[in-house]
Specification:
Elements lengths: L2 H6 L6 E6 L3 H17 L3 E6 L8 H4 L6 H4 L2 H8 L4 E5 L2 E3 L1 H6 L6 E3 H7 L2 E4 L5 E2 L12 E3 H8 L16 E5 L3 H11 L2 H4 L6 H8 L5 E5 L11 H5 L7 E5 L16 H16 L7 E6 L2 E7 L6 E11 L5 E13 L2 E4 L3 E2 L17 E2 L2 E2 L5 E3 L2 H4 L7 H19 L9 H12 L4 E2 H15 L12 H8 L3
Helix pairs in contact: 2-5, 2-15, 17-18
The structure holds NADP nicotinamide-adenine-dinucleotide phosphate.
């Protein structure tokens, strides 16, 4: 990639690139930048920042713990991280001037201007860090939880470790028909033996083992045909012990998959749903996962905590753009539950000093170049919204990096002192006393893996900030 671009760039001066965010898109961008260095003879140095002590973003803190194969992609990120021209700086928060002032000498906060002073380019790989809202009464009642919080809780995200969801209700209702909805519904029903070999955070593992939840009801606002689940994720439900999958035969009748206009994936999904519908519920199964389509949440009710949810029954209408919309029929259905999990998609958060499109929750850009801002770039979900699988981020990051390298080649190099690379690190260490570097992360990683080994778990996660700091300090 980018050879023509690189040949034009005669300078051998190092190019310093900051990557903000250490999830998949950040790592794919870092790898593409470093490869350009190796392949094109360009001296590219990448410093990757994360506000947490740990890298890998959603791979560590979003992917469901019972999907270790998906998580194993982190081995690729490790390889990138071990390259000489790469540095990791955890516990560094990119904030605005106000945040900087409020933390005294700056404890852990750096600003965009400070990065622009020190780097030739900045790549933002910050993902979509918050939830899409339903905008219905009762949404914030205790017991109504956004998937971003629940997923963070079971994965040991330090921001969500204290969530403490009450799992004493026999039925949980999950809103949304995407893979995140499926993840949270499945995690609630996994047999103890399966859970115990995962890296589910210990606080969540104990809560799941003691949980009273026996049934998850997944509600999609459109029909089974429009559901966003992927086939692999649906298929694995049949391999889970003690679980029966329940689908109303009217919503997935025989032959529903016989439609030439369907994609292969959609056809397979419909075959699965109609298979479950024909099979009917297994009355002996300990756990039940029910799918109900054409249902939108209208109100969540309860006295001090969730007691029931009112669902509106929809019909479908196809708009002029060809997209199928759910339209409220006015009919209502009330479901008793103490736990509502809202899994209707993630949303990006605005970055200090950068433009932001509030509708899509993304930073406006042209093929990764931030609109109106030289030297600043976006990759991943903050670039294209919360869609696609992990691998999607590779192509996406390559596109951005191609433009970044072309821009570097055209721009006059910024004059830097010979010890610039070292000076940046010295500044960071002074500014961020809790800084966790690559070596520090490797110590944390080794500790976590070591603790998991005796029980056949990939790792036992650390969630406490002070513990991260203690483990990361050189001994
Ligand atoms: P998603 O795939 O976009 O699904 C969101 C779901 O929420 C859709 O069914 C959507 O319905 C529904 N929804 C949106 N607004 C709603 C509202 N107001 N009321 C009711 N329903 C509403 O998003 P996601 O599940 O958060 O997943 C994000 C991305 O990560 C996806 O690309 C997903 O495939 C990926 N992911 C992959 C895996 C895996 O590979 N194992 C696991 C987790 C996530 P409409 O379609 O009607 O809008």
């Amino acid at each position: 990639m980018g050879h023509d671009v690189l040949v034009e760039n005669h300078t051998t001066r190092p190019h310093h690139v900051a990557v903000v965010g250490s999830g998949p898109s950040g790592f794919y961008a870092a790898a593409a930048l470093l490869d350009a260095g190796t392949d094109g003879g360009l001296d590219v140095r990448v410093d990757m920042f994360d506000r947490l002590a740990t890298p890998w973003g959603l791979v560590r803190l979003g992917v469901a713990p019972d999907h270790p194969k998906i998580k194993s992609v982190s081995a690729q990120y490790d390889k990138t991280a071990r390259r000489e021209e790469f540095r990791f700086f955890g516990h560094v928060h990119l904030g605005d001037d106000e945040e900087l002032r409020s933390t005294g000498e700056g404890g852990g906060v750096i600003t965009r201007d400070e990065l622009l002073e020190r780097y030739d380019a900045i790549v933002y790989a910050v993902g979509s860090q918050t939830e899409r809202r339903l905008g219905i009464p009762g949404e914030d009642l205790p017991g109504s939880i956004a998937s971003v919080d629940f997923v963070g809780w079971y994965n040991g995200h330090p921001d969500h470790a204290a969530l403490d969801p009450r799992l004493d209700s026999e039925r949980a209702v999950v809103i949304g028909a995407g893979n995140v909805a499926l993840d949270v519904a499945r995690m609630l029903l996994l047999p103890e033996a399966d859970l115990r070999t995962t890296d589910t955070a210990d606080h969540a593992l104990h809560a799941f083992v003691a949980s009273g939840v026996r049934e998850t009801l997944i509600c999609g606002r459109r029909s089974v045909r429009e559901a966003a689940f992927t086939t692999t994720e649906l298929r694995e439900l049949d391999d889970i012990a003690d679980l029966t999958v329940v689908v109303d035969p009217e919503q997935a009748p025989p032959g529903i998959a016989d439609d030439d206009t369907l994609t292969k994936g959609a056809r397979r999904n419909l075959e699965l749903f109609s298979g479950w519908a024909q099979r009917g519920p297994d009355p002996d199964a300990k756990h039940r996962m029910e799918f109900r389509f054409l249902r939108s949440p209208v109100e969540i009710r309860g006295d001090g905590r969730v007691e029931e949810i009112v669902l509106g029954i929809n019909r479908l209408e196809t708009g002029e753009d060809g997209r199928t919309r759910a339209v409220d029929t006015g009919e209502r259905e009330t479901v008793t539950t103490g736990l509502v999990l809202r899994a209707v998609g993630y949303r990006g958060v605005a970055l200090p000093g950068l433009p932001f499109d509030d509708d899509s929750g993304t930073v406006p850009h042209t093929e990764g170049r931030v609109e109106g801002h030289d030297r600043e770039y976006v990759v991943g979900w903050i670039k294209r919204g919360p869609t696609g699988i992990i691998g999607t981020n590779k192509k996406d990051a390559n596109e951005t990096v191609r433009h970044l390298l072309a821009d570097l080649a055209e721009r006059a190099p910024i004059e830097r002192a010979d010890d610039h690379h070292e000076a940046v690190e010295a500044w960071l260490r002074e500014r961020c006393p809790d800084l966790v570097d690559q070596e520090g992360w490797e110590a944390i990683d080794a500790h976590e893996r070591g603790r998991g080994e005796p029980d056949g778990r990939p790792r036992v996660k650390v969630v406490d900030r002070d513990h991260f700091i203690e483990l990361s300090r050189p001994r």
